[in-house]
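Why run this: before we spend reagent on co-expression, it is cheaper to look at a predicted model of the complex and decide which construct boundaries make sense. The entries below are exactly what would go into the expression plan.
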Amino acid sequence: MIIEEKQVSTERIFQGRVVGLRVDQARIGDGSIRGREVVEHPGGVSVVCLTEHNEVLMVRQFRYAPMEILLELPAGKLEPGEDPFEAMRREQKEETGTTAEAYVDLGVLYPTPAYDTEKIYLWACRVTGFGEQKLDDGELLEVERVPLEQLEAMVLENRIHDAKTQIGILKAAALVRAGAL
Amino acid sequence: MIIEEKQVSTERIFQGRVVGLRVDQARIGDGSIRGREVVEHPGGVSVVCLTEHNEVLMVRQFRYAPMEILLELPAGKLEPGEDPFEAMRREQKEETGTTAEAYVDLGVLYPTPAYDTEKIYLWACRVTGFGEQKLDDGELLEVERVPLEQLEAMVLENRIHDAKTQIGILKAAALVRAGAL
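The model came back. Tokens follow.
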């Protein structure tokens, strides 16, 4: 039986604009005390936006941590207290200019639960409204339409690296094949 | 055209056993200077271990950051300078007691590239040798065999949350369907 760990003490190291960091002492299942480094993140949202021709709206942007340009699903960070569904619709509108009438819940992913509290909530939709991007100040990204079938092949061939994008594309492709999206 | 960002300065905030944290000032594409919070991680490895009956060796363990028990693929952190393939074989042996003769490369995933350098390298294999677990001191986990087909359904039904596990299972299921694993 797996036994839950209990917080014994906590030391706050950092609170930034994106992440927080704390180091806890925790009592683990064998009774001993261990250090636990925890990156705190408010959570994120992402969405697979499909056109009527089964193209997906993708964003290409520079990511500073890996120092690479990545092709990803539109996504964003939750504001404090923000509802994930509303946050996703806001990010969709800001990054792609589009809206939709109905959404399919693609579930949640924990990017790296060994040390990070972040959870990313995923949806898929059929785009019904097209408008203009409204990017945040300093946000630089390009929107591209890529066929879902091509993106699924790119994921399986290791040509897309972002985790939420791999998961969103594979789940959306399975739903489209099943006639459920 | 997306323009790469350049490091202007860096401030080291923390170096722990698992993660490091720094805050950089970066020149971004529009010429302005922005703060960039970067979580540094040495990278990870994970493996989909299939038995001859298409069961997957899964590990159930408590994760302190989300405070939940999760069902995941066997995985581990790279030691400094360690080769990812060798690290994966070490973790497979330690956590499941198994070995294999051949591996299929399932690619790499970036769990959360907006602020984290971590990359997780994934493989799949058919298990050929069965032995005993050799867990690290304080590592408490249970190994379970779960049919791949059932795991794929669990991922699609949002009953598995860990990102590398969702990706590994969906990719392995596609390969088995294609007769390539």
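Chain B has a mean pLDDT of 96. Residues 163-177 of chain B form the longest helix (15 residues). Bring this page to Monday's planning discussion.
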